[in-house]
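Q: Got a minute? One more chain.
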Amino acid sequence: MPRRRTLALVVCLIACAGPVHAQGVAAAAGGVEVGAAWSKFSDLESSVGAIDHRPGFLIGIYGVSRATENAGLQTELLFVRRGSVARSASSSLTATETLDYLQIPLLLRIGPAVARRPTLFAVVGPAFSYLLRAREVVSPGGSEEDIKSQVTGSDFSVVLGGGFRAGRLEIEGRYDHGFRNLVVSADRRPGDPEPKNRTVAVIARVRL
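A: Always. Here it is, folded:
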């Protein structure tokens, strides 16, 4: 029930984010976004060997509701592909984990609402992620396994980013720092590593 209420709120915010003007300031706006992401799991290097970033992507919609001329709430509804690549220190085995999430960032946005030339902006705030699918591929061999039952079903993270806006186009770079242990509670043991999501992304947006 909480997830449904959150999703309904976000969809409502974005659906209502058409251009609205009050006293010369765009009160709300929205559009589409797509980006490239590089992610990995923290706290695993000492236990499995080398940990590399896994390339991924994100795609979705966003809305910005203005509280003042220079600040507002940026709400997003995203499909995000994350993961990590683990290389064994004692053999040639490589394990690639792929985690697909539905993510809802709720971000404070600092930057002018109306600008006649390119301007800078910054975003910061929490993001809530719900696991849709989880897979692992071990190579050589290429065998694939569904590992969703072994991965925590939701994540909480803090997003910090910034970029520039020129007309209807925006480019943003962001860092997404996850706080939840990705190992399900039933499989945790005292002293075991606590892997968490770490993601860097570059995002392009078009305001509609």
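A: Residues 13-25 have pLDDT under 50 and may be disordered.
Q: Perfect, thanks.
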